[in-house]
Task: inverse folding
């Protein structure tokens, strides 16, 4: 069983090649306006992980990242208010 992952995309780096969409259409899409990557599922199902990792390898711009995420995130006991002002 694969560890859960979180996918990220950097639209500023994306060149619109579309390899990700062809490789894992359940996770990636392309914007109709500018052709750049759109992330459909930041936490893809386990059965797509091989294709997601292949999409990372095939991306000529390096615009896709995949990071492991904990299965049960630790609770800190206090809400994150760093973005609230």
Result:
């Amino acid at each position: 069983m694969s560890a859960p992952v979180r996918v990220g995309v950097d639209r500023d780096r994306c060149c619109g090649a579309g390899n990700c969409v062809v490789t894992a259409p359940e996770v990636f899409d392309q914007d109709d306006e500018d052709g750049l990557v759109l992330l459909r599922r930041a936490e893809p199902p386990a059965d797509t992980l091989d294709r997601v990792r292949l999409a990372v390898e095939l991306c000529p711009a390096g615009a896709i990242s995949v990071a492991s995420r904990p299965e049960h995130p630790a609770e800190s006991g206090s809400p994150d208010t760093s973005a609230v002002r």
Notes: Residues 75-85 have pLDDT under 50 and may be disordered. Helices lie at 19-23, 49-58. DSSP finds two helices and four strands in the chain. The longest helix spans residues 49-58.
